[in-house]
Amino acid sequence: MGLLGAAFVSLAALTSAASIPNSNVKRQVSQLRDKYDFVVVGGGTSGLTVADRLTAAFPAKNVLVIEYGDVHYAPGTFDPPTNWITANPDAPPTWSFTSLPNPDMGNTTAFVQAGQVVGGSSAVNGMFFDRGSRFDYDAWTEVGGPEFASSNNKWNWSGIFPFFKKSVTFTEPPADIAQKYNYTWDLSAYGGSTPIHSTFSSFQWADQHVLAKTWKEMGIGSPKECAGGDKEGICWVPASQHPVTARRSHAGLGHYADVLPRANYDLLVNHQVVRVVYPNGPSVGPPLVEARSLADGHLFNVTVEAEVIVSAGALHTPTVLQRSGIGPAFVLASAGIPLTLDLPGVGSNLHDHSGPSVKWNYTQPYTFFPLPSQMATNATFKAEATAAFDQTPARGPYTLAGGNSAIYVSLPHITANHSAITSKIRRMATDGTAASYLPPDIRTDPTMVAGYTAQLLALANLLSNPKAPSLETPWATAEPPYSTAWSFLLHPLSRGTVRLNTTNPLAQPILDYRAGSNPLDIDVHLAHMRYLRGLLTTPTMLSHGAAETAPGADVAASDALLAGYVRAQSTLSFMHPCCTAAMMPLSKGGVVGTDLRVHGAAGLRVVDMSVLPLVPGSHLSATAYAVGEKAADIIIREW
C-alpha cells in the first residue's frame, strides 16, 4: 500500500516549534505549535467560517487550519480579460473529478470541480449566491424524525435562517441601477456584517428581458425577494462580489485575510490530511491529526486538545474519514484499513443537481446590443467594458459574473401529473422496493434503507408542495448559440457513492454518481422538459421566430424518446455535490448528529456540504457559509 500503509503501522512523530504571534501562512511543520485546541481539516467555505468564528470567540485558544491548496488570487467568473464565461488565466487550481459511467444515463459521466485553494469552492464557483426555499431546510428535520425535531440544535428554516443572515453582508445596488433593471429585494432577509459580500450587478445583457417577459407570459410570478424562504417564481439572485470593486468575495478573503492579524489563527497550506488517529479507540478523543507535506511527503501528527473539525468538502471528507477507519466496514476491509467505526453512511448518499436543456434558434433578426458575442468581436466594446470595471464603483459587463436571474417552479405548477409522480415515490418508500434503487453494496443495510425511505417520503412532500421549487432555470442571455433553457432537477431521488481508491488511498476518490438509477427521476425530468418547451409558444418567443432545435416536437411527443434524450443529453453535475456524511440519526445511516459530531467518535465533527441530508434547491455556496456559521455557534456554545 506504500506511504499510507506505512502510516498505519506506526504514528508519525510530531516535529514542531513555537510559532511567531501574528505570523503569516505556514508552509512547513517546523512553523507549527506543539499542540492546538482546534484543528480544521480543509480551508474551504465552511472550514474558514468556523476557524474565523472560533479564533474570535476564544482568543486564548489556538486554531490550526490545514489546507491542501495555497493562497491564490481568485478572479470572478467573468473578470477581465475573459470573454463570456471563458476560462480565466488567473483562476486558482481546482480539483477535477470524472465519475464512473452512469449506466442509467447512457453510460455518460459526471464531471465535477472543486476549489483546490484557500477559500475552497467559494474561490472558483459561479458566484451565484442563492438560498433554498424554507421547505428545503424543513425537510432536513423531517428526515431526521422525532430525534431531530426534539434536538436543541434546529436545522429547519427557522433554525438556519439567522445564520444565513449573519453569514453575508448584502449591499443594495445604486438607485439608478435598481431602477434600470427593476431589481427588487427585501433587507429583512439579510442583516449581517461579515466581510462576505453580495450585491446585484450594474449590468445586464441587452436581451435579458426577452426570457424575463417569456417567463411572465408562462404565468410565473415575481416575488420581491427569493432569499427569505419563499422562492417560487422569477428571482433576482445576488452575486458573491464586493459592492464597490465587483471582485469575487470568497472565504479566503472574508474569513481569513480580512480578519487577520489574530495570534491564535494558523493556516498550514500545501499539506494533505491523511487521517485522524484514535490511539485509544474512538471513545477517547479528540484524535490526533495525521498530515503529510506535499513538498516532500513527510508525515507528522498534530496534537489536538479540544476537537477536530473535518471540512474537506463532500468529495474529500468521506475519504479522510475512510482512511481513518471510519466508514463502511467492507470498503475499509478491501483497502486493508483497520476498522475504527463501521458507519456505512460515510461516502454514501451522494447526489447533485443535474439535467438536460431545451434549445432553439431565432428565425427573426436578433439585433440587441450589447450581447456576449461582442466581447469577442468588438474590441472597442471590450476595452470600454474593461475600463468600466476599473471604475470606482465598478460598472459594466464585467460586473455580471455568470448572471443573476433564474426561475424556480414547483412540480404542481409544472404538470397536472404531479400527484401520480409523488404517489409513486411514496409507494416505493412503503412497499419495500426503495432499497432496490440504492447502491448494491448498501441496499441490504437496514439503517441505510431506513434513511433512504425517510428521504423519499420527505421528497414526496417537497414535490407535492406548490411553494417548493422542483425546477431551476438560470439565464443571463439567449443569444445564439446560447439559446438554451437548462432544466435543473432540484430534488433528485437517485443516490451514488464516494469511495476510497483502494489501490491508492491517498489518490482522488472514486465517484459513482448513479444518476437516473431511481427511474422516477426520469419522470420528473420529462415533466420539466415538457414544461420548459412551453416557452417557445409564448408571444415573445413567437415574435422572434423561435424554432426549437432540441429535443424537438417529435421527441417530446413520446415518453420513450424524450427519456432517451434526457439520458443522453443531461449534464450530470451542476457542481453541487453533497450529502456524503449526512446529518441523520445513526439508525437511519447517518454519520453526524444535529451537533455535527460524528456518531461514536469523540472530539470529531464534520462541517461542510457533506453533512446535508438532502441537497437544497439552490447553488450551495450560501448554504455552505450558513452551515459554517451555525456549526461555529454550536461549538462555541458547547465550549
TrEMBL record:
BP-aspect Gene Ontology terms: secondary metabolite biosynthetic process
Residues in Glucose-methanol-choline oxidoreductase N-terminal domain copies: 313-327
MF annotations from Gene Ontology: flavin adenine dinucleotide binding; oxidoreductase activity, acting on CH-OH group of donors
Gene3D superfamilies xref list: FAD/NAD(P)-binding domain, Glucose Oxidase, domain 3
InterPro entries reported for this sequence: FAD/NAD-bd_sf (IPR036188), GMC_OxRdtase (IPR012132), GMC_OxRdtase_N (IPR000172), GMC_OxRtase_C (IPR007867)
Residues annotated as the enzyme's active site: 576, 619
Signal peptide range in chain numbering: 1-17
Co-factor requirement: FAD
SUPFAM superfamilies hit by this protein: FAD-linked reductases, C-terminal domain, FAD/NAD(P)-binding domain
Keywords attached to this entry: FAD, Flavoprotein, Signal
Residues holding FAD: 45-46, 117, 273
Family (UniProt): Belongs to the GMC oxidoreductase family.
Name of the featured protein: GMC oxidoreductase
Organism per entry: Parachaetomium inaequale
